[in-house]
Amino acid sequence: MEKVRVLTDTLCNGSDTVIRKSLIKIYPKLEELSSLLTTQEIFSGKLPLKEELLKRDRGYFFANNKLLIGKSRSEIEKIFKIKFKIKKFDSAILQGDIAQKGVARGTVRRVMGHRQIAEFKKGEILVSSMTIPDFLPAMKKAAAIVTNEGGVLCHAAILARELQIPCITGTRFATHVLRDGDYIEVDANNGTIKFLNKKA
Fold it and tell me: Residue 130 sits in a domain of what CATH number?
């Protein structure tokens, strides 16, 4: 899956936004929850109850046309006869590619989907797997941007240069290591992110 994500990084990442906005127009009562519908549910018109979609919103796993809700990692491994590869990180400093130079310090706010955009506060450090056009309101408030994926031509990099915000892409581990509330320094002159004990 990771290889597929890398290969598709060069494709138009706006397609996700188009699909989400289209679903909201088709199912206005569901609002953002419409993005949790399966293709089969959309084609058949047989929609699950809102309570079911709220459960999915708390976390799900979808593969081989099977939708699993509320299952642990070990349960998913048994069902699909797979083994998840756990990435270990043992450094106080993250490294990535410099997309826009600059240095910023601030509190981490992970933006993993549309729900976190409204919660984002001015001056926070936006941390995400990758950014999409819908993240723009949060990106405009960010002191810096850090992503797991992408390079100097990805969405985050292009917007960071336009907004003149320090940005480091391709860290691979940022969303695995950084948590909301962590206080960090993003040194996009050297491509490093480090934890700080307290606000200076």
Answer: 3.50.30.10
Domain that residue 45 falls in: 2-80
Q: With beta carbons less than 8 A apart as the criterion, state whether 165 and 186 touch.
A: no
Task: Note the pLDDT tens digit of each residue in 56-111.
Answer: 888 888 888 889 998 988 999 999 988 887 666 556 789 999 999 999 999 999 99
Q: Could you write out the DSSP letters of every residue in 118-139? A: TT--TTPEEEES---GGGHHHH
In the set 155, 167, 177, 184, the catalytic residue is 155
Which has the closest alpha carbon to 150: 171, 178, 177?
171
pTM, two decimal places: 0.67
For 122-169, what is each residue's pLDDT tens digit? 999 999 999 988 899 999 999 999 999 888 889 999 999 999 999 999
In a domain, 175, yes or no: yes
Helix, strand and coil content of the chain, in percent to the nearest 5, comes to 35, 20, 40
Cα separation of 60 and 67, whole Å?
7
Active-site residue 176, yes or no?
A: no
- Between CA 141 and CA 160 the distance in angstroms is 11
State whether 131 and 160 are in the same domain.
yes
117 with 183, same domain? yes
